[in-house]
Amino acid sequence: MSYILNIETSTKNCSVALAKEGKTILCKEIAEEGYSHAERLHVFIEVIIKEVGITFQDLSAIAVSQGPGSYTGLRIGVSSAKGLCFALDIQLIAVDTLQVLASQAKVANGLIVPMLDARRMEVYSAIFTPNFENIRAVQAEIITESSFEDLQETLYFLGDCAEKCKPVLTKENFIFLEEIKYPSAKEMSLLSFEKSKKNDFVDVAYFEPSYLKDFMMTVSKK
Question: What does the radius of gyration of the chain's CA atoms come to, in whole angstroms?
Answer without folding.
Answer: 18
